[in-house]
């Protein structure tokens, strides 16, 4: 199935490219050259992703849905990357190619999951089915994302893994807000949201250039605690949740230190000639985003402290009232 937005000329180029890849793969396989066969299989997977992107559904962004054609081509890409791994057999054959294929496979699963999450095909599938497919694709992306091996790609892997955990946590957080009844499912979503938020924080803390992402995750965790508090009846339970939320706020110190460091470095850096920008200069912080996050942080901290004072005052009044009754 081809989208109307895809030109005939583009389709012909796909076919030519695919035909050349197939011939090359066959030739390399016939001489038992597993490494080059894997590279061409990997490139064929990339071609399938280009086809998927061409079927993203032009038109109103607000009505955009992840289309069946996109899913079809992304799944074809996955098949080619898996064939490339099978062609190599093990990482020992050619570590650099193996790692590259794994990264592309992780990227494909991540892209599929992200598009399904952001442009949920609700006209074709139930919300629960979409959530299940998003979760499965994200976990497969994680499986092929090596965060432990020291390499030039390690920070990228850590950032992706952190983003996956953050997205899954946000999804389960949203599920919990919208879930009515079924207490077992609510408990499951609560546990999963908490687990993925914790993992996201640990991974973002390893990175030096993601302070805003770290701060955002921590603020979502605070919102998660606030939401849990609405269903608690006892003051003791509420105070415990509030204490936990305040502890999260305190542990955002690392993010603020990174933000301050970046702003100081940016301020101290001598202004270079605009016509010859520094090649190695890192992207500066999004100040608008920083201001927005700081504003949210201040409002939540103020709210939590106020709630704590109210609950502690209420508990103190009850305690003193009971003491007076006992004295009488």
TrEMBL record:
Pfam family, one: TPR_EDRF1
GO BP, sorted A to Z: positive regulation of DNA-templated transcription
Domain EDRF1 TPR repeats region intervals: 2-327
Protein name per the record: Erythroid differentiation-related factor 1
Coiled coil: none
Organism whose genome encodes this protein: Mustela putorius furo (European domestic ferret)
InterPro entries: EDRF1_TPR
